[in-house]
Write a structure and sequence with these properties.
The N and C termini lie far apart (about 65 Å). The protein is about 40% helix and about 10% strand.
Length: about 525
């Protein structure tokens, strides 16, 4: 006995030019409690769409008068809310990828498995109901109501989100710390693409937070209630890959003492995150491709296939296109995984987020260790700004972990090279006033004035009584001169100093520099 859908009155439009198949789809959906209309061509389908609203449109890819993609494009152009599911012929992976890129919620491969058909339609209807507020599908879309701030404000994420977004989704996005333009773009893209089923490829250097992006995609999707299964593809022995991914029956290999499910089965109804997908051997790549395309897996030791319902999110630090050219990665798998790409910036490309990252990481480290959050001086922040941080956020977190462990008192002492056995922190040179910061063709800004060499026999400058005040005075003088020479154009002054606009605004506020209003650009 079939289960009734989450939205019993949901209205579905089925578009297929084969009468027998169209009738089969209609009967299947009617038994599920949906209201169903049918069409055999693009023109007929569009007539239905012009006369009323639907919750979902199920369309064949190839129709007598055009492609099902035309319906997707028209629906998108008119900003309609119908979720579209495209049916493609067996083996036509390119069509499925093209449909997902065009905005399809999901796709089905012919011959369609009716159990999978019902599951995909139910997901599309539930997702549409969630975003449309469960309004009657035949009614015109009302104007959006003004957002009301709830009594307890959810975590700030820095991007526009619907007012009814779950707190778990906001919290997942808030873990992607940073308000730089690059991070705002990443978070906005997550919110935009999380709703569908299209595979997502997250690209970024090691330590940039690729798994956090995958978890945010899951939390913002209609699959958030399902499992999130993370797999490190490079950490599994090649001989165990198939059993780990697809499961195994008792006795299927030496040591298989009982039936076990694979990652695909464990992620049923949720998200499967394939980290470092570029490390997967070629022999396993072909099997993974088939599982993704057919949405079926065959556990080791059995001839019976199992239908799986997972969304694939993968990640890599490698250039997969170069890997394809070198013959180390299958081109068809690359196109299947890379339907939507999210690129994470390296930490060196978003230095303006460093302060917020340190604050968030220190709070988490202190909470985990049961210690008070240590105070971080501007001197420590400047040290970090001058450090390459090639390991990105992971390296920053390790540095702060060590600093919290080795610091005495409430003030953070930073050990940049790890050799703090003598209890002293080791400083790196601060290229704050380096001539290299000057733009080509411009005279370099002057460095801080040298200390009078009145230490006999040593030639070293005296240590200032208040280092922080001394550093602030020098930085203030440099920033003021850059602003004055740029006519108080902050963008030009920032470029002269090798800073972003956000960074120079931060320094102006911190140092108390008076700047005429209206000269940001």
């Amino acid at each position: 006995m079939s289960s009734s859908p989450a939205t019993p009155s949901a209205q579905i439009l089925v578009v297929d030019d084969e009468p027998d198949l169209r009738t089969l789809y209609e009967m299947t959906l009617l038994r599920e409690g949906y209201q169903v209309e049918a069409a055999s061509s693009v023109a007929e389908a569009w007539q239905h769409l012009q006369s009323r609203r639907f919750d979902a449109v199920i369309t064949d890819m190839r129709l007598p008068d055009g492609l099902g993609l035309e319906l997707l494009q028209r629906i998108a152009q008119q900003q309609r809310s119908e979720r579209c599911v495209v049916m493609t012929a067996y083996g036509s992976a390119e069509n499925a990828v093209e449909a997902l890129k065009a905005g399809a919620f999901d796709y089905l491969t012919k011959p369609v498995d009716l159990k999978q058909f019902r599951s995909v339609v139910a997901s599309a209807v539930q997702e549409r109901a969630g975003t449309a507020g469960n309004r009657p599908p035949s009614a015109p879309a009302p104007a959006p109501a003004p957002a009301v701030t709830p009594p307890s404000a959810p975590p700030a994420v820095g991007v526009a989100m619907p007012a009814d977004t779950p707190d778990a989704a906001r919290a997942a996005l808030a873990r992607l710390v940073g308000e730089s333009d690059a991070m705002r773009a990443v978070k906005a893209r997550i919110v935009r693409v999380a709703r569908g089923m299209a595979p997502v490829l997250v690209h970024g250097e090691s330590g940039t937070g690729k798994e956090l992006v995958a978890r945010a995609l899951h939390a913002c999707s209609q699959r958030a209630g399902g499992p999130f299964v993370a797999v490190n593809c490079g950490a599994i022995p090649e001989t165990l890959l198939e059993a780990e991914f697809f499961g195994a029956r008792k006795g299927s290999y030496t040591g298989a003492l009982q039936d076990r499910e694979g990652y695909f089965q464990a992620a049923q109804g949720g998200t499967l995150f394939l980290d470092e997908i570029g490390d997967l051997p070629l022999t396993m790549q072909s099997k993974l491709l088939r599982a993704i395309q057919e949405r079926r897996v065959r556990p080791l030791g059995t001839a019976q296939e199992e239908v799986v319902d997972v969304r694939i999110v993968s990640a890599t630090h490698k250039d997969l296109q170069a890997e394809v050219q070198a013959g180390r990665f299958r081109q068809d798998l690359f196109y299947r995984l890379n339907v939507i790409e999210i690129r994470l910036p390296a930490l060196r490309d978003r230095r303006e987020d460093l302060s917020a990252l340190c604050e968030a990481l220190l709070a988490r480290i202190a909470e985990d260790s049961g210690q008070p959050v240590p105070a971080m001086s501007m001197q420590v922040l400047l040290k970090l700004e001058s450090h390459p941080l090639r390991g990105n956020v992971r390296e920053l977190e390790n540095l702060l972990h060590r600093a919290v462990a080795l610091s005495e008192g409430d003030v953070l002492q930073l050990d940049m090279d790890g050799s703090a056995g003598d209890g002293r922190s080791h400083e790196l040179p601060l290229p704050l006033f380096a001539a290299a910061d000057a733009a080509p063709g411009q005279a370099p800004l002057p460095g801080p004035p040298a200390f009078p060499p009145h230490m006999p026999g040593v030639g070293e400058p005296p240590v200032p009584a208040d280092l922080q005040r001394y550093l602030d005075d020098q930085e203030r003088a440099i920033v003021e001169r850059a602003l004055h020479e740029a006519g108080f154009n902050r963008t030009a002054a920032a470029a002269r100093l090798g800073l972003s606009l956000r960074q120079i605004r931060y320094r102006i506020a911190r140092l108390g520099i008076a700047v005429p209003h209206g000269d940001d650009e």
